[in-house]
Structures are given as C-alpha cells and as structure tokens.
Amino acid sequence: MIDIQDVYKTYTSGEQAVEALQGVTLHVAKGEIFGVVGPSGAGKSTLIRCVNLLERPTLGSIRVNGQELTALTPAELRLARQRIGMIFQHFNLLSSRTVAGNVAFPLEITGVDPVQRAERVRELLALVGLSDKANAYSAQLSGGQKQRVGIARALATQPDVLLCDEATSALDPQNTSAILELLRDLNRRLGLTILLITHEMNVVRQICDQVAVISDGKIIEQGSVVNLVARPGTLLSQAIFPPIEAPLDANGGRNVTITFVGDAAGQPVLASLVRKFDVDVNILGGSIQTIGGQRIGRLQVKLAGAQVDAALVYLRSLGLNVEMN
C-alpha cells in the first residue's frame, strides 16, 4: 500500500545542509498499522510529510496504492491526496467552524453535493462517537474530542491510507488509550492502512503490527512488533523490557534471560525445570506485557546446579528465547 524506497531529504540554509532522511526504505502492507518510533529530531515528521508530498523528497521513490507520487502533476497530486488522510498532534481545527463544519470542510473543497455532504458528516461523527457534538465549537471540546474531530475530518474523503503525526502526544493517558482504540477499530472495520509516527512506546505496544526505529534520519531497526519485542537484544525490546543489572555470581551460576511468547507466558516452565533438572532458580526480575494482542513475558533468572546446560537445552526445545547475560 505504501512503498518508500531509498528516500533522502536534505534541507539547505545558505552553505549548510541538514540531512533529515538518509536512504529510508519502508513497506507498509494494505490494512496494517505501521509505527515509526524515535526521539525528537530523528526525522519522523519529515518522513510522514514526504509520504503525501507535503515535503518533497530530495531523492527516492514514494508510492501509495501503486501510484508514484513524485511523478504526478500538481492536479494529479491533489486527486491522489484525497485518498490519503492525515491527523496532527495539535488537531489543526478551524476555530470559527463547528464540529460538523470542520468535518465537512474537505468535502466542500472537493465539491460534494450539500445533501450528500451532510449525510457523510453525520456518518463520520457517529463513527467517532461525536454525534452529540455536531454544533459545538473546538473551544468547547476536550483534547480527546478534538482529535476525534480530526480523525473524522481525515476520513471524510474515504481515504485508503491514514497518516498520524504524533496523534496522541498532546493527550493525557486516558484519552491516548481511547484514541488508539478508535484507530485500531477503524483499521479493522474500514480496512484502513495506518502509518503513524510517535516517540511513545505505549503507542507501538498498544496498536502497531509493524514498527521501524529511526535515528538521525536512518532506519536502524524494523520488523514485526511481536518479533522485535521477543528478541532481548533489540532496541524495541529493551525499551519495553528494560534490562535488569544482574549481580556478580561467585558460585558458578548462570544469569539467563528467558522470553515467553503467547501461551508459553502462562505455563509453569520454571517449576518443570526444577523438577526435571534439579537446578536452583533465583528470579532476578521480570514482567508480562500484551503486545499486538499477544502476551510476551520476560524473566531474568540465575540458574545454578550440575545440569544447567541440559536445562538450557530443554528451555530452547520449548521454543523459548534463551540468552545468557
């Protein structure tokens, strides 16, 4: 659905050049939620603005739904953008318009008949849970309600793709969770492809299928959220499961990190280990998270005893990820 190939974006000011993007390549499949996560200044906003050519790449290819956007004429690009919705961190609502007027705005621009426009606005407000706010103004809304208006407006022209530029950064945790649930619901009900950028790991954890980590304009890690979190050495995994500093072991034991995915997270694995191999198990720390609808558990333990090597082989035979610290 979205293909970004070897994209560079360089800003120049006098003799200075800033490389905001350096050879970025991503593929977002139809119907998935793809997150791009990284710190401020990493290039996230530049990347998402390149997708609909609000920023034109210096080099590289941007294809959306099979269409090469960088090759379009201005008139063709305007039509293509009708199939790409976008929501923003600070909502960008028109304060002089009501909620219904804000949602209707893109339909007015594209020349939709007033009767059809009114019906579409009613449908969209019902979809985002704001039917009772049609005549309210933005100053009368909470942050979460403002973002719901932004989402409804972005969906007005029935886009295939929704771009989210730090869509929850201005919201409190409760509204953040509600907006993320709404986005996931829209993704499932409408088959909407969503590309979002964020610096919040909770956003990735709650709704993303795939993720890319960006730093200094380069993608340094990408893949399935579940797969990356299940591998202790990845940046994403370390952000969600911060490593525990294991104590020095003077007695010959092994410090081990064990990752459980899915049903294995609820199994009595350590109890079986003790019975089968007569090893001592000291739990140093651990937690269980739900990532992409799957439970992922991480335990850091100290194993001691004559059969530690056999115990490690057994753990791996169960399909668990086992790493020595």
Description of the structure:
InterPro entries: AAA+_ATPase (IPR003593), ABC_transporter-like_ATP-bd (IPR003439), ABC_transporter-like_CS (IPR017871), ACT-like_dom_sf (IPR045865), MetN_ABC (IPR041701), MetN_ABC_transporter-like (IPR050086), NIL_domain (IPR018449), P-loop_NTPase (IPR027417). By secondary structure, the protein is α/β, with parallel strands linked by helices. The protein folds into two domains: 30-46 and 64-235, P-loop containing nucleotide triphosphate hydrolases (Rossmann fold, 3-Layer(aba) Sandwich), CATH 3.40.50.300; 244-324, ACT domain (Alpha-Beta Plaits, 2-Layer Sandwich). Helices cover 33% and strands 31% of the residues. It is built from eleven helices and 14 strands. The chain has helices spanning 44-51, 74-81, 99-109, 114-127, 143-154, 173-190, 201-207, 225-229, 235-240, 269-277, 308-317; strands at 2-13, 16-28, 33-37, 59-64, 67-68, 84-88, 161-165, 193-198, 210-215, 218-224, 254-261, 280-291, 294-304, 321-324. The strands form three sheets. A six-stranded mixed beta sheet has the order 6-7-8-3-9-10, with helices on both faces.
